[in-house]
Amino acid sequence: MIILGIETSCDETSAAVVADGTQVLSNVVASQADLHARWGGVVPEVASRKHVERLLPVIFEALESANLSLRAVEGIAVTNRPGLIGALLIGVTAAKALAYGWKLPLVGVHHLEGHLYSNFLAAPDLAFPFICLLVSGGHTEIVLVESHEQRRSLGRTRDDAAGECFDKCARLMGLPYPGGPHIDRLAASGDPQRIAFPRAWLGDSFDFSFSGLKTAALRFLETDGGRTPQEDVAASFQAAAVEPLVRKTIRAAQTTGVRSVAVAGGVAANRGLAQAMRQACEEAGLRLVIPPPSLCTDNAAMIAAAGAPRLLRGESDPLSLDSFASEPVG
Amino acid sequence: MPVAHTHNPEETAALARRLAAHLQAGDLILLQGGLGAGKTTFVQGLAQGLGVGEPVTSPTFTLIHHYSGGRLPLFHFDLYRLEGEQEIADLGFEEYLEQRGVIVVEWAERLGSLTPSEYLRVNITRSGESARAFDLQPFGTRYETTLSSALSGAFSENDPC
After folding, report:
1. Could you tell me which residues are beta bridge partners of residue A157?
2. CATH: 2.60.120.260, 3.30.420.40, 3.90.870.10, 3.40.50.1000. Which one for A2-115+295-312?
3. B68/A44 Cβ within 8 A
4. Are A41 and B81 in contact (CB < 8 Å)?
């Protein structure tokens, strides 16, 4: 089954063509990289107007690079929750128009469910149940994925997301955007034990907290005045951010008796996290799946993958499909 | 102008809970204060005070969080990632003002000329390791009333709890 995926929930305008929910034929994301570099900060594509301008060219490019015409598409999956309501509506409206015009089944997808399904694109043989650490600029959550229909959130951040903490710390260190990869690069040659940044363990909970680490980094940089090498600051910060992510994920797998662990979301591209997670999974005898960065950041291929099980079962949502600004993944 | 002092995040949340009890549909709260000042903690207290059951997290990347489970809808904005007024306008900020909920905005100084004439400004400064000073400034009679009823006997200058 050829599925067209559409994602416009926040910054990115993306369209993708995915076969049978596992094989990516194309995955186009309108990029803002040049603007990011010029601004030295995030330039979000908040304007619904920008999504309107870009969405059709992005859809056509996705079809062209998959070497397919619209005629070949057999189903449409679109992000309809959660996100910026104006941005979501653009994708949902386009998806409805295409579904109506071409008489195609349409399904609405939860954005975070999309991230979970990026793992099936990276590892089509991944079996239920598995633990997924969903870690990005906007979310940090441990999810027990039991089947296509059943999942349970075991814990989530109580304040800032991990990716937000990386970005804010990078800005404090005067690093260019995007900050996460710069911290990762510097950390590779730094001493992770140089500065004892706090780790938020929160008892036995699978919840996270990163606002204390952000504040500790701010206080340290204020008083240090640039004396400590940036490599050591980055390595110490990264270790403090990564340790709770890895340990809680492993403990979640052990507590639930699950044998496979997956990581998804933009921070999954962090090499320090990947390395620590690989080592911990090896020691615990767990299978680890980490999708490539192109599938970890917001993209429409994961939305197509998440919509596939319902479309393959012959289900579809009505053309009255609504968009929702908020809804927990639960 | 009234200044409230808190000694830790729990007291900050308690201060916000008290304020929440006096908020009405259409109220706008603009938060100012640097990284780590306690803006998100303050909003968590507001949400608790309004009876929102869901956990409140930072909307830095997601820009707007909407909570509908409380006494009034709560719209939590974070303008940290936004640089220009045009971007904020594109986000639909002015449309949210019509929504009959409570709007609370982090990094509100970025609103610039989009700042409405009436609102409650909360300026947070660090007065110690975990102590914070909250400078509460009403703009417009509606917010003078809200603030005076929230302040009357609710908390003294030095003790919010």
Report:
1. A208
2. 3.30.420.40
3. no
4. yes
Which stretches in chain A have pLDDT values below 50?
32-43, 45, 329-330
Domain span at B106: 3-151
Query: Tens digits of per-residue pLDDT, A165-180?
Result: 999 999 999 998 779 9
Q: Tell me which chain B residue has its CA closest to the CA of residue A212.
A: B36
The residue behind tokens 């990716």 is A163
* 3-class SS letters over B15-81: HHHHHHCCCCCCCEEEEECCCCCCHHHHHHHHHHHHCCCCCCCCCCCCCEEEECCCCCCEEEEECCC
User: Which of the following CATH numbers is that of domain A127-293: 3.30.420.40, 3.30.930.10, 2.40.50.180, 3.30.160.100?
Assistant: 3.30.420.40
What does the alpha-carbon distance between residue A281 and residue A159 come to, in Å, rounded to a whole number? 27
What gap in Å lies between CA A309 and CA A313, rounded to an integer? 6
| pLDDT for the residue A47 | 61
User: Which one of B39, B58, B130, B132 makes the best mutation probe of the A interface by having the most chain A beta carbons within 10 Å?
Assistant: B58
A79, A117 Cβ separation under 8 angstroms: no
**CB nearest A46 (choices: B44, B59, B91):** B91
| Predicted ipTM of the assembly | 0.86
